[in-house]
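Task: sequence design from structure.
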């Protein structure tokens, strides 16, 4: 029952405060033939306090991005095993209109113990995380100052109030992670410097607060990072933590930087001393750094631009050492149109061509052997995405075998006769093992 209440409480508190109820039962229209369970007394008291704030001229102002976007949220901030309630308001007439009110459990009730005030148009995001490993969760708050500017602050509960660990700094993206492996999380803040160049500021712990320790140049502008860019927490070849930053230019080139600690200092390990930008730049294919093969390390995609209609759109995936040296660990063919990819056997890399065909209810990619003169040879493999109402029947035609059954399509493969004679011939089991459906990524929004 406790778990059920934890999931229902934010919505119930909001319903109580909007209805003006101070306690008792939440009763819906009798025609609906049911009544919600009675809300515990301490939460009805909390609702009464929230109602008092609303009646005093405030309005709800929930964070607009990130994973935590409810107007009332529950989190154990002080590590005592009891959850604090964090509520977000806007009181337009105040000098600092944005309010984050913290209510702490007191016996069978709640009492307001702290309030964080901010200027700007909205609370952009909030993250709760134990940054310094002391068992208490800090609040990382992104403030929306105007349409083009965001500011970042960090707070911790301290002596019945809050203490500011990091005064607001402008930012475009940020990440909290343990980059140097000391057991405490640092902040990496991505922003534009005074000249408008991209920079990654590294905030580390000093005298129980977060202080700017160093900054590393990054290759992209903040516009290139904001549009289709992505920031990924991952690992290098030796398992060391690293931050992978990808931006997309107006020419649809993907620019990748990697931040890691080298000789005790955070650096951009891909930044060229000659050009001043990353050496990892290529055309954007919609792919980002990820652990593509499940080995616990992060691979960076390097698409190989096709030379012609029949050339394979190969993607080489590289891991990197802290020195900045990259190594290709596998290659794939990505069919973005039908949502699948295929890990190419090593013997196929640079030695196959592909052709994509489509008709009503079916799209197929055929892999062909390529001779030493670049001429297309025999067909080796055909992978099809079968859709439509009769796909179950069509998916079993001929020598097809099943790869994956999804809601929108059935993926099948067939090994044409003659392909097995080539040195790169595959078995059905090997095809199944090398095939994957591209999983749709869900993101809660940037912090």
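Answer:
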């Amino acid at each position: 029952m406790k778990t059920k209440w934890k999931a229902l409480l934010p919505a119930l508190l909001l319903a109580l405060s909007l209805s003006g109820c101070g306690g008792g039962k939440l009763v819906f229209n009798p025609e609906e033939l049911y009544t919600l369970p009675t809300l515990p007394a301490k939460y009805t008291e909390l609702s009464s306090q929230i109602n008092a704030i609303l009646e005093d001229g405030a309005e709800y102002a929930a964070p607009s991005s990130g994973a935590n976007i409810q107007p009332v949220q529950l989190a154990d901030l002080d590590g005592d095993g009891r959850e604090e309630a964090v509520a977000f308001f806007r009181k337009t007439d105040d000098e600092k209109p944005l309010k984050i009110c913290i209510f702490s459990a007191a016996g069978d009730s709640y009492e307001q113990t702290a309030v964080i005030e901010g200027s700007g148009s909205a609370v952009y995001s909030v993250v709760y995380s134990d940054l310094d490993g002391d068992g208490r969760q800090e609040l990382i708050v992104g403030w929306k100052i105007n349409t083009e500017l965001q500011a970042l602050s960090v707070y911790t509960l301290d002596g019945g109030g809050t203490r500011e660990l990091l005064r607001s700094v402008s930012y475009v993206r940020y990440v909290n992670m343990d980059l140097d492996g000391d057991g405490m999380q640092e902040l990496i803040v991505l922003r534009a410097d005074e000249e408008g160049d991209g920079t990654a500021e590294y905030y580390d712990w000093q005298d129980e607060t977060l202080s700017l320790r160093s900054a590393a140049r990054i290759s992209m502008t903040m516009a290139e990072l904001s549009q289709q860019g992505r920031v990924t927490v991952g690992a290098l070849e030796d398992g060391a933590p690293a931050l992978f930053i990808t931006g997309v230019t107006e020419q649809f080139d993907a620019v990748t930087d990697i931040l890691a600690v080298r000789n005790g200092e955070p650096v951009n390990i891909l930044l060229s001393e000659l050009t001043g930008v990353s050496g990892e730049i290529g055309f954007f294919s919609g792919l980002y750094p990820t652990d593509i093969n499940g080995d616990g390390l992060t691979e960076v995609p390097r698409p190989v631009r096709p030379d012609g209609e029949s050339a394979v759109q190969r993607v080489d995936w590289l891991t990197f050492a802290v020195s900045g040296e990259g190594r290709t660990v596998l290659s794939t063919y990505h069919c973005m149109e039908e949502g699948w990819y295929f890990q190419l056997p090593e013997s196929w890399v640079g030695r196959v061509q592909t052709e994509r065909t489509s008709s009503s209810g079916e799209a197929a990619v055929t892999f062909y052997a390529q001779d030493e003169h670049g001429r297309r040879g025999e067909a080796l493999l055909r992978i099809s995405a079968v859709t439509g109402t009769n796909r179950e029947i069509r998916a079993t035609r001929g020598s097809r075998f099943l790869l994956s059954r999804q809601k929108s399509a059935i993926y099948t493969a067939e090994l044409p006769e003659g392909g097995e004679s080539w040195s790169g011939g595959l078995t059905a089991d090997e095809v199944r093992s090398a095939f994957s459906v591209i999983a749709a990524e869900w993101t809660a929004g940037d912090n």
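The longest strand covers residues 161-171.
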